[in-house]
Amino acid sequence: MSTINQSIKRTALDRKMDRIRDLEEAGKLGTKMTNRTMRKLLSNKLAVAGAVLFVVICILCFGAPLFTKYSPTTIDLRARMAEPGGVHLLGADQMGRDIWARMLYGGRISIIVGLGSALGAALIGVSLGMFVGYKGGWLDSIILKISDVFLSFPQMVLIIIIVALVGQKLENMILIFILTGWPSMYRMARSKVLSLKEEEFVQALRAFGISDLKIAFKHMLPNCVGPIVVNITLSTAMFILQEASLSVLGYGVPQEIATWGNIINVITNAGVIRYDWLGYWWMWLPCAVMLILFVLAINFIGDGLRDASDPTQIG
Amino acid sequence: MLNYIIRKLLSMIPMLLIITFLIYVGVELMPGDVIDFLIPMDQLAEMTPEEVAAFKAAKGLDGPMIVRYFNWLRDICRGDLGYSLQNNMPVGELMLQKLPATIELSLAALIISTVLGIFLGVISALHKGGLADNLLTVAGMIGVAIPQFLFGVFCIIIFCLNLKWFPVGQRGSGGLLDELHHLFLPAFVLGIAMTAGVMRYSRSSMLDSMNRDYVKTARAKGLPEWKVNLLHGFRVACTPVMVLIGFRLPMLISGSIVIENIFQWPGVGRWFTDAVKTQNTPIIMSVGLFMVLLVLLSSLLVDILTAVLDPRVKLS
Amino acid sequence: MTEKRNDDVVLSVKDLHVNFYTNQRCNKVLRGVSFDIRRGRTLCVVGESGCGKSVTANSILRLLPDLSRIESGSITYYKEDGTEVRLDQLEKNGREMRALRGKDIAIIFQDPMTALNPVYTVGYQIREIIKEHKPGLSRAQLKKESIEDLGDMGIPAPEIRDGEYPHQFSGGMRQRAMIAMGMSCEPKILLADEPTTALDVTISAQIFDLMNNLKAEHGTAIMMITHNMGVVAEMADEVAVMYMGNIVEYGKVEDVFANPTHPYTKALLASIPVLGKGKNQQLEPIRGVTPDPFNRPKGCQFCPRCDYASFVCKTEMPDEEWVTEGHYTRCFNYRKVMADGK
Predict the structure, then answer these.
(1) Model confidence at B59, in pLDDT bands (50, 70, 90)?
(2) Angle A170-197/A99-127 helices, nearest 10 degrees?
(3) What's the burial of C50, exposed, middle or buried (CB within 10 Å: 0-12/13-18/19+)?
(4) What Rg, from alpha-carbon coordinates, does chain B have?
(5) Which end of chain B has less Cβ packing within 10 Å, N or C?
(6) How does DSSP assign C51-106, residue by residue?
(7) How many contiguous H segments (helices) and E segments (strands) does chain A have?
(8) Which residue of chain B has the CA closest to C108?
């Protein structure tokens, strides 16, 4: 049809535009009828890759007995420091425990700690934010103050003090993460509710005399699902990282339970690097890679969800 | 403005009281008797209960908790942070020894992450969808996904042990150059997670700003692109980025606890973890107070900064 | 179009095609648009939202978004010294284009709240454009000019207003500041993209007075974009009616209003209430809906909604046809439309 002005230099973008124009003129571009959020999520290659990685690692960890015949806690002194490639796929640690088995079983604990804490924190934070934030009044200001107190601490400082207080136990770990994690969820939900409160549909529901509880959870909650889900995924990643950091400082899940943090922890002693141990790479590096991949996968998913659930973004 | 700052500072006092009391209760409730950490086991076995009581009295460990809390509070107001239970050194003095190292490290990390994060974020936004943008986005995600201590370990293996560019751990002690030489790697590692966060946020903030009408107005005025990007696009985008940085300061402090341990940096963070292990109440209390104060002050700083950067914001 | 070039013409757009490439689709927004802008006259471009009015204005200043481009056609600016500049061939944000922006051709946007940068004072934003095009002025001179410009636009206490931020201005005052900014370098052409849509009626009347004064005093050529036929009647010397990326009728406002030759123009005129006719007047909305830009009718874009459509309309787009001197239409059946009268 038309020719572009020749005097302007043609760029890669121009060629791309030409291609789209030709396809359009040939009538090959049509409107797709699938769900917009799904379509955007699927067209985000990183999010898809993240989801695949997430599923693979979860299957490996939760189906651990299918992928290894060893137990993560069986000590075999003859296999101490065994190098990878022998009977032990990824070698064994200083007590002769199979690294591959420890990684898989440890992953279970790490994932449960991360996901469980994030879900717990979301449950408390979001329900408080939704209902109390919507009702307002003295209860709201008290909870706001309490969350202020929590948020005034650098999280690590707070966690360390509480761990020292209640002792290092797996259940305690999850409870502590929930305790330190709910305030930010609460703040997020509350600010969302405060803006939704001004929307006309909420005003209308109130005028109809619908109960506050019903307005908050049945009508407002579905409007906040996007940010909540994004927040849960990103918090899961954060808690997994924190579990690992705490292990290094000696405040994490008890040493005898295999978690990703505890496995990697062989290279440090109470926070100080044991340089002579770095050489036994199979004892910490594969697990570190698995941890990083898992956190990366969650971040990819969370990011994709954020983009897809944001209706203001075109694309 | 001054009015606002004073009012804000006054409103921090009840908050600080609540928080310090909570820490105090927490530390008191910790399992085990402090005595066990203070006197070697065999010595303790030989002491009579009277001797132990006398020892406790000398250290200020007797009396009901609430009294001890208010005693501590009174001393704080006089500038007396108490004595380390371990070696009887005044905590204030020890604090002054440890503080410069931590401030130096955090400040360097803050500067690195702010400058690098904003710069890369803006570059990414201006080349949206291009190769640089995609690479930086993935790099940023990896930066957030690596636990800080592991990143520290990797950096030590690569830059200290193999390439031997930087010394392993410890703080420099001779001249500015040596100090910087020791400082760079821990500060970089500490700042990396924050850098990634700032970068992503700068990118989206910049993209948002560049889509606004005033950017089009600026172009319609005939301004050159760098002025459009910098004076109009970036100038508006930087307010929310500053707010983010302010709110992430606690994260930086949390990180410094880990990094100071990994790099054997003689700062407050390492001192704190050691103190928690030995239940050294005066130190835990002082450090807790200091950290909380730092967080509250930084949020005040964020308020002031927003008001300065955005004329629409009124402090009230 | 075979009209001899008039000396008064300052900007001439010929057969302009613009495509948008968002969402991996190609949207042909402008499909051959031609018109002239003349010194000391106002051209009103009228049409419903999405018809390409704003895109036309933005193409002239080359302010189109990244994922769009001028496919073909020409935009020629006739400088006072007689030279011609092909705006469509200049580099988008290049030096030559920038030299013209703000100095020779200025634009006023629809919403003065978002078009002014919230973090700078109004005075600074006016001085910014003066500084760019008249380098070498001292601070004091610049300040004097910006205050004068604000005062000229009827803003009271301009010395104080100069140091205030946009959020401290009311909507009407903001638009005045916007016009002050646009007029600060005395441009030859002022493009106004729905300048009063965000304002109430009395304020917009004041803004129109202001623009008419500028036209009378400086001989500024004005291209005014609107969707309001009332504004056209009040402001226009010439009018261009746009529909789905084409100018379907163009001419002097008297001619077009007296003898609408395109069914769309006619329908538009029939759909506005006339003051004084009482509340029982018969208003006729245009039947049907605007077609999806990705699924356009094959022939005349208005065909599916047109009462005069004939067989040929379904398959072919009518060309521009001269009705009288300076009045053209894009309709095969314009004689029938005319014969029907108003």
Answers:
(1) low
(2) 40
(3) middle
(4) 24
(5) C
(6) SSHHHHHHHHTT---TTEEEEEEEEEEE-TTS-EEEGGGS-TTSHHHHHHBTTTEE
(7) 14, 2
(8) B217
Select the residue from B221, B239, B306, B312 to test the C interface by mutation, using most C Cβ atoms within 10 A.
B221
Of B208, B210, B211, B217, which to mutate for an interface test with C (greatest number of C Cβ within 10 Å)? Answer: B217
Among B157, B273, B284, beta carbon nearest to A271: B273
Q: Is A210 helix (H, G, I), strand (E, B) or coil?
A: coil
Domains and CATH numbers, chain A: 40-76+87-309 (1.10.3720.10)
* Low-confidence stretches of chain C (pLDDT beneath 50): 1-4
* Contact between chains at C89 and A8 (C-beta distance less than 8 A): yes
Residue reference for tokens 């797709």: A32
b/e sequence C167-188, b meaning 16+ C-beta within 10 Å: eebeebbbbbbbbbbbbbbebb
What chain A residue is nearest to C32 in terms of C-alpha separation? A2
* Signed CA dihedral, C134, C140, C141, C147: sign only: positive
What pLDDT was estimated at residue B156?
A: 87
User: What are the backbone angles phi and psi of residue B46, rounded to the nearest 5°?
Assistant: -85, -15
**What are the pLDDT digits (tens) for B92-127?**
888 888 888 888 888 899 999 999 999 999 999 998
Which of A3, A5, A14 has its CB closest to that of C89? A5
Estimate to the nearest angstrom the gap between the alpha carbon of A111 and the chain centroid: 9
Q: Which residues of C touch B222 (CB under 8 A)?
A: 98-103, 129, 132-133
**Minimal Cα–Cα distance from B217 to chain C, Å?**
6
B3 half-sphere exposure, CB direction, 13 A CA radius: 3
Which of A8, A13, A43 should be substituted to probe chain C, the one whose Cβ sees the most C Cβ atoms within 10 Å?
A8
Q: Is C10 helix (H, G, I), strand (E, B) or coil?
A: strand
Rounded to a whole number of angstroms, the distance between the first and last alpha carbons of chain C is: 27
Q: Determine the Cα–Cα distance for residues A146 and A141; give it in Å rounded to an integer.
A: 9
CA distance C114 to B170: 53
